[in-house]
Amino acid sequence: MARTADHEQRRRQVAEALLRAVGERGLARTTLADVADQAGVSIGLVQSYFRTKSQLLRFGVEYLYKQGENRLRAVGGDGLPVASVRDWVFRAAETLLPLDGERRAELTVWLEFLPTTMSDPEMSRLHRDTTGALVDMFTQALEEARRGGELTPDADARTEAADLVAFVDGLTLHRLVTGGVYSDDAVRAALDTYLDRLLPAPESP
């Protein structure tokens, strides 16, 4: 068991080194040697886990998505009250945005990886499956919101969930690339306004 744990820890160490290297150098300029240097290990050790750069990149993307999944799972489970579905949706969507140093670093690397989904079938599958899981999650929340009167009866929960994921991706892009008016506070306010329109408070009886 200890050997398996060491193996997984080493793979995580290499994945984190990959993210740092890509964040500093860009994906195209990052080599296995750069990753080994960031991890403080030999290139031979990196190659013992990942025979090609493509294998390493796929693992890095999986690691990124797992980090995001862990944050989503913590929403509502960290002892903080969730007053409504809208409150949960806001906090869940907020975890996907680059609103602290760790998430900015990860999502900067995510932007570097995205073009590879156009040419690498495995990268495309990873991105498609992860996006699909997000849409499913928000669809379930919005269906619950409809039952509770927070979502209008004629709204299609799945369409609205897909639109929300696309909106959050757009906020991420502009926060990272455009800056300026897209400050952390402005991004939160934009998400708040979007959800006010999507999930207005139920009318009092």
Automatic annotation (TrEMBL):
Quote the DNA-binding region ranges, renumbered to this chain.
Answer: 31-50
**Highest rank taxon of the organism:** Bacteria
Q: Does the keyword DNA-binding apply?
A: yes
* Keyword Manganese recorded: no
Q: Where is the HTH tetR-type domain?
A: 8-68
User: Per its UniProt record, what PROSITE patterns does this chain match?
Assistant: HTH_TETR_2 (PS50977)
Give the record's keywords alphabetically.
DNA-binding, Repressor, Transcription, Transcription regulation
Entries under InterPro entries matching the protein: BetI_C, Homeodomain-like_sf, HTH-type_TetR-like_transc_reg, HTH_TetR, Tet_transcr_reg_TetR-rel_C_sf
GO-annotated molecular function: DNA-binding transcription factor activity; transcription cis-regulatory region binding
- One Pfam family assigned to this protein is TetR_N
Stated name of the protein: AcrR family transcriptional regulator
